[in-house]
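User: Here's a protein and a ligand (flavin-adenine dinucleotide). What would the complex look like?
Assistant: Let me lay out the input and then the predicted complex.
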Amino acid sequence: MSGPKAKVVILGGGPAGVHLAQLLHKVANVTLVDRKNYYEINWATVRAHVQPDLADEIFIPYAGIPGIGTFVQAEVASVHADCVLLDRAMTMNLSKTSFPIGRQSNDDRLPYDFLAICTGGSYPSTLHQAGVATSIADRKAGIQAGNRALQNAGSVLIVGAGPAGVETAAEIAKAVPGKLVTLVGAHSSVLGNAQGTPPALAQHVEWWLRKHGVKVILDERADKVVDGAHITDKGTNLHADVVYTCSGSKPNTKFMEKEFAACLNEKRRIKVDSHLRVVGSASANIFAVGDCNDVPETKLGFLAREQAKVVATSIKTMLKQPQGVTIAPRLEVYVPYSGNPKVLIISLGRKHGAMHVGNVVVTHMLPRIKSKHLFIGHTRKQLGLDKREGMFACGRAPTVNE
Ligand SMILES: Cc1cc2nc3c(=O)[nH]c(=O)nc-3n(C[C@H](O)[C@H](O)[C@H](O)COP(=O)(O)OP(=O)(O)OC[C@H]3O[C@@H](n4cnc5c(N)ncnc54)[C@H](O)[C@@H]3O)c2cc1C
């Protein structure tokens, strides 16, 4: 392609979208869209709930992240063959104290040459669901309110015993002792949903939780709420002052349903080929990256970034293709992660953690590092920020539209 720079529109500013934007902003006209005005290091949100001052480090305004092109705060309403339609009103309704962070733009139609859908997934619980607060001020206020509710609670129920539920239970049991913490999961072991988890890791994690006073109920699906009580499919009645729903993470792909419904699988994930291009779309220039796609691997931020690298290289190759050449360019292939050690590291409070290397459970080194710092400094550095303060460390500031 020659002439004016190609328009690359990236939907979703999580690990996948931001990394992709940073890799492409020098070679293309990049626009990054997110419904909120801040990046969230979402695996650290649970700890911010028990330690609210952490919020300043893990909620980072997009305006402060270098090299992401033009940022637009808006809800993606629908995706079309040549453009994306935005719904700003929805964003404003969601955010009571949304504030302008840059030049205003009223254009609700974003045409694109390349589209990357990086909209991830959401949990029903506000603990992990960044999308419910679209301004950083609302998000921090929500964390403070959540912390007060937790401090005042006598009992806490966590529904879902996958990695998110387990880490939530562990964090609360260690940081806010004295609460009656119950973890209920539908599988016969904790972490039951995480791909390739060996029994030894699940057993170790369950042992740790019970040792720290967490009541673990397995093989029961808490699928009904009657008069505020959660009832399991086996009839157990679970009452608690505070409930966190950590099950049922759903891909954020509703905006695909209008014109691209055929591109979604039965779990509403976006079907992709080995180049992470959307399967079933007429265009070869539409990619889906990270948690929203159907790549068969554990959904992790680290892997979302790896996928972004592959797509960035392919888009760069396509951009270099001289006009008029009809031979398809050779695109990068993404190989789903199957390495060892597995990248799933479970933090169990601040001082303990576990991962597995083959069938051996490892509780020192990486797990300890994750549990202590939750890779916050590392993630901030990857974003091009100072490890501690949300100031520029390198690169140029983005143009920001709201
Ligand atoms: C408790 C917990 C612990 C975890 N631990 C780890 C870990 O230790 N290591 C690790 O690597 N990963 C971990 N993960 C997983 C990791 O957080 C995800 O894999 C990663 O965030 C996925 O990145 P993504 O960019 O694909 O999507 P997301 O991070 O989900 O980002 C998607 C973005 O799209 C935006 N968006 C969605 N829909 C719309 C719309 N319609 N309009 C506008 N914007 C929209 C959202 O606001 C969001 O900013 C953990 C997750 C949780 C919940």
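Summary: The CA atoms of residues 27 and 316 lie 8 Å apart.
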